[in-house]
């Protein structure tokens, strides 16, 4: 699956070079502090997605940047987020310079993490898509026991929604269709391998009988 191209950025010094060469002057405001300019749009909006049980233990997690490079740092972050959110009715939290949207279901807590300037509605669309896709896959039993028994499918669902921090899909029906297609394709591949092995066994058997 190809990842969308990031937004192009001008090479440092391009404006100065153009001015020296008699080209167009850099746009007004180019010398302003970066804090005064609008932030450049980015496709890489998701920092992490994780699912915890009702004791704050990790069941599923994917991190898409190096904010928390080690497993230990990730686990500490998840525990802190759980402690901050598990007893509140809100669906949005701001923690450690990040925006976090979350949802609870029976004995699970689902989290989507973005940067502090990220659009909460965008993050919420990912969370809703994840929950509804899992609900469809687990036949509305979005709880720990069923999730653990279908973990491969849960990772497939997540990979169809987010890839490398880029949001690919926010429609749960589209996600389920793609997951089913990949599952069917995998099943056909396994079946083809089985058929090849069976055919090879038959050929060996007949060659020995000759």
UniProtKB/TrEMBL annotation:
Subcellular localization, as worded in the UniProt entry: Cytoplasm; Golgi apparatus membrane; Cytoplasmic vesicle, COPI-coated vesicle membrane
Annotated Pfam families: Clat_adaptor_s (PF01217)
Biological processes, Gene Ontology terms: intra-Golgi vesicle-mediated transport; intracellular protein transport; retrograde vesicle-mediated transport, Golgi to endoplasmic reticulum
Cited InterPro entries: AP_mu_sigma_su (IPR022775), Coatomer_zeta (IPR039652), Longin-like_dom_sf (IPR011012)
Keyword match Transit peptide: no
Biased composition (Basic and acidic residues): 1-12
Domain annotation AP complex mu/sigma subunit: ranges: 45-182
Location of the region described as Disordered in the Swiss-Prot/TrEMBL record: 1-34
Any GO CC annotation of this UniProt entry: Golgi membrane
Biased composition annotated in UniProt, kind: Low complexity: 13-34
Membrane topology classification: Peripheral membrane protein
Keyword vocabulary terms for this entry: Cytoplasm, Cytoplasmic vesicle, ER-Golgi transport, Golgi apparatus, Membrane, Protein transport, Transport
Primary site of residence: cytoplasm
Cited CDD domains: Zeta-COP (cd14829)
Function: The coatomer is a cytosolic protein complex that binds to dilysine motifs and reversibly associates with Golgi non-clathrin-coated vesicles, which further mediate biosynthetic protein transport from the ER, via the Golgi up to the trans Golgi network. Coatomer complex is required for budding from Golgi membranes, and is essential for the retrograde Golgi-to-ER transport of dilysine-tagged proteins. The zeta subunit may be involved in regulating the coat assembly and, hence, the rate of biosynthetic protein transport due to its association-dissociation properties with the coatomer complex.
Subunit structure, as described in the record: Oligomeric complex that consists of at least the alpha, beta, beta', gamma, delta, epsilon and zeta subunits.
Protein family: Belongs to the adaptor complexes small subunit family.
Name recorded for this polypeptide: Coatomer subunit zeta
Organism annotation: Sciurus vulgaris (Eurasian red squirrel)
Gene this chain is encoded by: COPZ2
